[in-house]
Amino acid sequence: MNSAEHHYAHAALRHYEDAVLLHDAARLPNADHHFGFAVECALKSLLLRFTAVRAPMGPDGRPGRPSWRDPVTNRAHRYGHLPWAATEVALLTHGRSATRLTAALGGLSAFATWSEQDRYLDGSGVVEADVRRRRTVAENVLALHEQALITGRLP
């Protein structure tokens, strides 16, 4: 059975590749949707690999929602769909890797108005400038993710 990190890593690449094809075909609402999921999956993969975040595997072989419990407050932090607070994710990083991950997270503001619920809308609110910005962030996060998978560490 594959790990949650494995599933999120592969899902990130799959969503990104679909997003690029859709964006290049001017299918903006669906491209936007997939860029968001690509970033979300890549970040979950990185969190599972480099922080104390864990995601249990369900009996059906699907990964559960990544989460961690703050040992001081005993508060559970769950990572579902974007948008996330980049500062909260950055708190989980430490050492030299922290600055690289924090830099990559800086672009998450491009997803401040993104929602997985937009899949139910007619798509008229999606504009090219937003999709281009989100594509750039997705490219940056996916490049960081790929390098981390190859080297076993954040650059």
* CATH topology type: Four Helix Bundle (Hemerythrin (Met), subunit A)
Elements, N to C (H/E): HHEEHHH
Distance between the termini: 29 Å
Largest β sheet strand count, sense and barrel closure: 2 strands, antiparallel
Mean pLDDT: 83
Question: Could you give a quick summary of the protein structure above?
Answer:
Helices cover 53% and strands 4% of the residues. The protein is mainly alpha-helical and 155 residues long. The protein has a single domain, classed as Nucleotidyltransferases  domain 2 (Four Helix Bundle (Hemerythrin (Met), subunit A), Up-down Bundle).
What structural keywords apply?
5 helices; 155 residues; Four Helix Bundle (Hemerythrin (Met), subunit A); two-stranded antiparallel sheet; mainly alpha
Walkthrough of the structure:
- With 155 residues, the chain is mainly alpha-helical.
- It has one domain: Up-down Bundle (Four Helix Bundle (Hemerythrin (Met), subunit A)).
- The protein has 5 helices and 2 strands, in the order ααββααα.
- The protein has helices at residues 4-24, 28-50, 86-90, 97-105, 128-151, and strands at 67-69, 76-78.
- The protein has a two-stranded antiparallel sheet with strand order 1-2.
- Strand 1 (67-69) and strand 2 (76-78) form a beta hairpin.
- Helix 1 runs antiparallel to helix 2 (28-50) and helix 1 runs antiparallel to helix 5.
- The longest helix has 24 residues, at 128-151.
- The protein is globular and about 45 Å long.
- The model has no long low-confidence stretch (mean pLDDT 83).
